[in-house]
Prior knowledge:
The chain contains 6 helices and 8 strands, in the order ββαααβββαβαββα. By secondary structure, it is α+β, with helices and mostly antiparallel strands.
Amino acid sequence: xxxxxxxxxxxxxxxxxxxxxxxxxxxxxxxxxxxxxxxxxxxxxxxxxxxxxxxxxxxxxxxxxxxxxxxxxxxxxxxxxxxxxxxxxxxxxxxxxxxxxxxxxxxxxxxxxxxxxxxxxxxxxxxxxxxxxxxxxxxxxxxxxxxxxxxxxxxxxxxxxxxxxxxxxxxxxxxxxxxxxxxxxxx
Length: 187
């Protein structure tokens, strides 16, 4: 079941539209995003953004990844990306991925969006496991994953080569049993 729109307390999380390109580029080109993410290139061109929007649709059609734009509900302003990527239907697992505009950090929006992706992944897509990874230097990203109930599984030393520098990558994950237990406790 592929959902295209999600509503949370503060966010509208939806499929990207062609009209989102300029807003997307405004955020994804922020140096802070490049410096702390695993796979976003430094010089993000409009042509690359257009290509990536097409890839998102292909991935959704193939059920290999579902990525969405995050929009602040009160202003409809694009503030970041959230999604489930690296979907492996054979093993019922995926990874969570996200980034957020520097002006919207430390406001709880990423955690809110990530919680919605867990709900979608476990309650609608029936995943057994959702993993996540972040550069070890990205403490804020790790905090988001811990807040949503992910457990630290280890650090892969020198897993990422970026700008001729090797970075360690922290790996976290949550299982469906952890998620549903957490949901019962919160109710």
